[in-house]
Amino acid sequence: MVEYTELVIKRLLNKYPDKLHTVLKHKNNTELFVAVLLSPQCNDNQVNKVTTNLFKRYKTFEDYSEANIKSLYKELKGLNYYKTKARHLKKASQIIIEKFNGKVPQTMPELLELPGVGRKVANVMLNEGFNIAKYGIAVDTHCIVVSQRLGLSKNKTADKIEIDLKRRFPEKYWKILSNLFIALGRDTCTAKEKFCTRCVLKDICISSEDK
Ligand code: SF4
């Protein structure tokens, strides 16, 4: 299995050398945290569209914690579950100020204390914001589809798939794996359709329709 996983990584790195980071736009870790917190159940373009305006008006966790909730609803209206996300953002900002001195915490257990933060959000924050990969792999819907089709997991939930991927891939790949699977899932191995004839993994993938 090690050889297979090494081959998968090698081919994807070769194909997507410029896709090793999140496409969520941000200039600092406050913006990254906000963007990632808003990202579940939305595509990254939707989030970038909303944050382009949001980040002009809100700069610090103080700004979010003191925000009028109805104004925040308005700002986030282009996103799915925007009301829940607005409440989470306000509350998470209050906790970050009160408990973590206004800085995004840098461990998985601390991040998971914040409302709206699950393992995927926390892993993206740790990987992209702090260059910390030891806690795990950010598993989104693209990763779920690609992992299953590549035979890397038979599980259906992100948390269980993350455990399978962590068992199969050495830790040195955890940080980049998610973004490589997202790149493949966006243009070739999409949830709706798989374009195996143009896939760089078509000769080794167990679900390939072009061997
Ligand atoms: S070969 Fe087909 S099923 Fe396998 S990863 Fe590529 S596109 Fe997906």
Structural topology:
Elements: H1 2-15, H2 29-38, H3 44-57, H4 61-65, H5 69-76, H6 82-100, H7 108-111, H8 119-130, H9 141-149, H10 158-168, H11 174-187
The protein binds iron/sulfur cluster.
The site of iron/sulfur cluster has 13 residues, from loops.
What's the quick description here?
The chain is mainly α. It has 11 helices and no strands.
Q: Mind telling me the CATH class of the largest domain?
A: Mainly Alpha
Number of domains: 2
CATH superfamily of the largest domain, called what?
Hypothetical protein, domain 2
Relative helix content? 55-70%
CATH topology description of the largest domain: Endonuclease III, domain 1
Q: Give the low-confidence spans.
A: none
Q: Radius of gyration over alpha carbons? A: 18 Å
Helix/strand/pairing category: mainly alpha
The CATH level-2 architecture of the largest domain is identified as: Orthogonal Bundle
Shape: elongated
Quote the beta fraction.
Answer: under 5%
Total number of helices: 11
List how many beta strands DSSP finds.
0
- Major β-sheet profile: none
Bound molecules: iron/sulfur cluster
Order of helices and strands: HHHHHHHHHHH
- Overall residue-averaged pLDDT value: 96
